[in-house]
Amino acid sequence: MLLRCYTAVAGILVATYLVWPYDLRQWPFLAVTLGGVPAVVLALRRAPAGARTPWWLMLASVALYNIGNIVWIVIATTGGRVTGDGSVAELFFTGGGALLLGASIAVVRRQGRGDVGGVLDSMITAVALGGVLWSAVLLPAFTRQDVPVGRQMSTFVTVIVIAGTLGAMLRVSLVSPAGRTASIRLFTAGVALTLAGNVAGVLVTEANSIRPDWTNNIFLAAYALVGAAAVHPSVALVTLPGRAPNDDLTPGRLTFLGVMLALTPLIGGGRAVLGQPTDGVLIALSSAALVPLVMVRVARLAAQRRDAERALHRLATRDGLTGLANRGACLDRLTEALSEGPRDVAVLFCDLDGFKPVNDRLGHAAGDELLIAVADRLRTCVRDDDLVSRFGGDEFVLICRGADAVDVVAARIAELTARPFTASGEQVRIGVSVGAARARPADTTDDLINRADLAMYEAKKSKSVGALSLVRA
């Protein structure tokens, strides 16, 4: 109901804007633009408590746009039919565009679950195409109109910012399921019309800086679409986390980005070669705007590679269930310790007693829960420079240093296993058989592990469930 009322009122005002007497047109204009404020406030209230950043940015953006509109109306009504004269109103429009871009990126980050690479690629492409639009279309128009540099600069920044916004929103449409909702589509269409309005305003403005009033219809339609996006029921889906897309910088994708980077300089240089007017400063700014985006993109790829390397190392050295060092990492650590000198190196080979009955009776999920609980307790039995590993199944190997390491660690294990464990909501008791072996001068890794393993089996022979049995080799 609210969406229908808003769409009907805004649609009528947009459609009848040019019918109003010229001196009264500021009222339907303000009604549409100011109507976006309560619409965004409604979207802000609908958003979850931890996902309101995009809407706060959107609210600030709409507020700045409205301040700029009010300033523009004051200028237009007091100084004639002047629009877009490089006044302070343009500063508010530029700030509103920057906040709109921030809101779009915040949406993309949530929908793409940190899709930084995709956002950057989209922004690089959009900014590059915005630079082409400036060099090939807008700059020649400004040259014909003899527009002051101040207004050229403000329009340039506005176009680049809105182009980046549109690229970010298109990324949402391509990546996220929420991109197919009406709210995202309406918002993206509003951003596209904002860019179209700025371009049309430049192309049809006369030499005396008077812009035809029909171009305001484009901006009004953009405001109406953004407001409709905010009041649409699907707005609740906009800030929900989406799936994480693949971020592979393939050769084709890299080539495409390289072409985008080269477009603006190539077109600017081509115009210079042909003797047509060019603005080297703004072309340089357009190219410079891409440099930090590319640098962040490269840094992102480097960070992803480091994360992948750490993940692979973790997979190779860690037990997937308990997070402890796995068998291979344990043997490597023991080999390293023996190479540094076998003195005071001790191995405790631990095997759980009563684990199989619990696993058989309560199921594998309960068995996994019990193994994780045992691993957590064993971590507290050793010092920071010692190692706890899951050797396999319900076997754990601890590597310790110190003359009294075996006695201290065994006492801690006995204390911890004396308390019951919780598995599948039920309290269970298990014991631990421990075989301890100290390194000898001629020991290899296999020698030490085998002695500790044999001692553990000796300990099992005299074992009762719920207690600790220790045999030294």
UniProtKB/TrEMBL annotation:
**Which keywords belong to this entry?**
Membrane, Transmembrane, Transmembrane helix
- Tell whether Transmembrane is among the UniProt keywords: yes
Q: Which residues form the GGDEF domain?
A: 343-473
> Which residue ranges does UniProt annotate as crossing the membrane?
5-20, 26-44, 56-75, 87-108, 120-142, 154-174, 186-205, 217-242, 254-274, 280-299
Q: Which SUPFAM superfamilies match?
A: Nucleotide cyclase (SSF55073)
PROSITE patterns the record matches: GGDEF (PS50887)
A Pfam family that the UniProt record links to this protein: GGDEF
Q: What PANTHER family has UniProt attached to this entry?
A: DIGUANYLATE CYCLASE DGCT-RELATED, GGDEF DOMAIN-CONTAINING PROTEIN
Q: Provide the protein name.
A: GGDEF domain-containing protein
Q: List the lineage, top down.
A: Bacteria, Bacillati, Actinomycetota, Actinomycetes, Micromonosporales
